[in-house]
# Entry
Amino acid sequence: MELNEALQQLETLQKKMYAYNTALSSLYLDSVTTAPGDTAEGRGVAMGILAGESQKLMTDPSVGNLLEFLSAHSQELTFSQKRQTEELKRDYDQLTRIPADEYMEYTMLTNEASDVWHKAKETDDFELFRPVLEKLVEFNKKFAGYYDSTKKPYDALLNEYERGTDMEYLDRFFGTVREKLVPLIHAVGQAPQIDDSFLHRHYPIEAQKKFSDYLMEVLGLDRNHCTIGETEHPFTLEFNNQDVRITTNYMENNVTSSMYSVIHEGGHAKYELGIRDDLQYTRLAGGVSMGVHESQSRFYENLIGRSRPFIEAIFPKMQEFFPEQLSDVTAEQMYRAVNRVEPSLIRTEADELTYCLHVMIRYEIEKQLIGGTLAVKDIPAVWNRLYEEYLGVKVPNDREGCLQDSHWSGGSFGYFPSYALGSAYGAQMLRNMEQDMDVWGPVSRGDLTGISAWLKEKIHQYGSLLEPADVIKNACGEFDPTVYTDYLTDKYTELYLKR
Amino acid sequence: MELNEALQQLETLQKKMYAYNTALSSLYLDSVTTAPGDTAEGRGVAMGILAGESQKLMTDPSVGNLLEFLSAHSQELTFSQKRQTEELKRDYDQLTRIPADEYMEYTMLTNEASDVWHKAKETDDFELFRPVLEKLVEFNKKFAGYYDSTKKPYDALLNEYERGTDMEYLDRFFGTVREKLVPLIHAVGQAPQIDDSFLHRHYPIEAQKKFSDYLMEVLGLDRNHCTIGETEHPFTLEFNNQDVRITTNYMENNVTSSMYSVIHEGGHAKYELGIRDDLQYTRLAGGVSMGVHESQSRFYENLIGRSRPFIEAIFPKMQEFFPEQLSDVTAEQMYRAVNRVEPSLIRTEADELTYCLHVMIRYEIEKQLIGGTLAVKDIPAVWNRLYEEYLGVKVPNDREGCLQDSHWSGGSFGYFPSYALGSAYGAQMLRNMEQDMDVWGPVSRGDLTGISAWLKEKIHQYGSLLEPADVIKNACGEFDPTVYTDYLTDKYTELYLKR
# Structure
């Protein structure tokens, strides 16, 4: 084979993968936005086949040969071509270890599981979901062996979502979190509570939609390349660096619910929209890991969006959108209200301080589930016990307990920890950013362009061109969980414990 | 090859085609509903690749061999398998007969033509479009030979859109139409005009949306299998017999625009939703032809939706949705208003009576164009002359004249006649239905279930299992255009010429 020919094949292969991914994303987007209710079956058939074709393409022996050839000529490749080859080779090795029929069966299972989970959650019926969840756990245990048989199963799964992490890394992280934050949360719980009642006045959806438009503008999101839609669970879906969709969910009696969804998903969107053009339609054209992705969304949501300078900057505009609701409120009251801490049942509604503990509970359960020391049937009991132990809340039912998240129904085990890691990485990015530039002056004027530029330069542009660990080192330095716990301790001590 | 193995391959092939079609439909749907503005490029890359993969799949020599093998064993096949083989073989033969380089060149030409046509229409500049249109005509003449070299070129093209039709069939049809309807339209034009001014009062979109929901219910469209969305140009898009989407377009000052879009597209949707389960994911799982599809949409839109009993049935509900707008209107006034005849320039806005003549004009022009007796440069003059002759309207410019439709720019010559045939088939279906059951009693009570059942039994269930001609014979008997012209003559004589 000639090198030129091989590079041509490399490009074609990646473009085809892009096309299949685009098709699957489009069908997924449709399914959660506009598709009629009883249509999962036909869509499942199509998605199963497309996923199968995509897998067949990636597992064809000719691809193996191509990647071998390119690896052997790595000195003659550009850095980008070399990294494309590396990542594809990793995919190839992993996928060729999963038998095609198991992969197809699994795709159909997750499609079914999503429906069953929805029904189970709606009717608060864990038993309905249990058999499907058991199958999903078994599949994932088996797949873990395909991913990396030298690792413990849960380590192999963790590595899928956040390459380079394992139980040792996370035990250290969550150990620090447990040690520093559980007492802090306890102390905060004893302090006088912040009043946020004005956030729960009646905020008409139409006005909230206009407020979303304003927030998109503040975030610097170009509406010609990023739409905002509505789904039950907000998410970001990227087609390419010119086409990203975010969604939010409006609640009439909660103005911050959608507000922080928009800022959070906006952070994800900025990452994808900031990736370099020359990486498009290649394996490197996407955020590098879940953890780094969450670092971006949570950076905007919490470190900026819940900062005093940001609230002071946007509050006059908020009063314009909601004149009646906010006429008797000050910016400082708003700042305190959006940072109210209240141990609660639902992860996605948790405040900045307790959020991490919701994740820790899921981490501990997954670790045991995949490790084989916890049976699916026992999840509800363990879940409820841990919520009481760490957060001091009693779980009244599984709907608000272990059935609340969609992740497991989608076959994602090992995904949750990346949420918490993202927050920790974000705190370190902020400290580094503060070394490089004046962060808070512009933010207090509602100007996020400097932040955007810093994040684009250090993180976004690279997509997956660099390894996750290199991106993190680039933007954070060495990982040090105490930077994160110190940040939270300072912030919430000032808010709750110094008066 | 074993027969069982071949049948397995047949199923797999068709399921893959279904998956590619589903993906392309989903991306198309997204592009006209929710995609951000500047995102065509990335989507185009994906769609081009998916369409290419789908074509590669269907033109693979192994498919040719498979279909040969199955054709040779046709006595051992079920009727459905036999028909699947026949239809796929027709697709295969056609796709493989066009030389790849010509097909590529043609694809690029139609891409370009679409842009050029948009610009030409916008700027009312036929000369801009002329050279491209000339090339399109030449290509189609040549392709006609690939399709069926034993037929005259235009007959071969007509056969692509409505198998079994040819110029002889259509000359007879349009001859009757010309003879019977041109004088009728002339007479109607001399009669006092119907007042429809109340249709153009202010009808708020929100109330119109609720009215759409009501119409969907009357049509018996299950919202769990059929959603209604909004697009500039209404359409129906079918994924499978459990998942169909229709769209409409609301105009604040025209309540019937969306009303009849919903009923028209609803008719298309009912067809697709009524197709048998055992045909799903095969080549036969879709409406059999453009003409039969239009017969269904126009049946609901005109024959039922513009009938006196239907209007009388729904009018009290209409008054509930639009109390202010319709308080001074009677059901009879509404019936007359929705049947107002007004010869006009634009086909898509034409009334039931004159619509057919818009199509006839296009038929006569295409016949001569492909037959070689009319040069592209002379289209505007002929177009304008025929509009004056048949409809009595002067065409002020090509934008509202021969540049109005997108069909030719997409390379579709021979498509238009199916619109008119659909109306004619519908009239014959109605007469046959009236023989079999009480049509108008239930309709006058807003009950369309009997009609649905009849159409499902005679037409919908078969999808493409039967040849179009057999479906039509099944539902209409022998084709007799005078049934259609008599229906129109009776209806519009009563409305306009008897007082």
About this structure: The CA atoms of residues 251 and 257 of chain A lie 7 Å apart. DSSP finds 21 helices and three strands in chain A. Chain A has a mean pLDDT of 96. The radius of gyration of chain A is 23 Å.
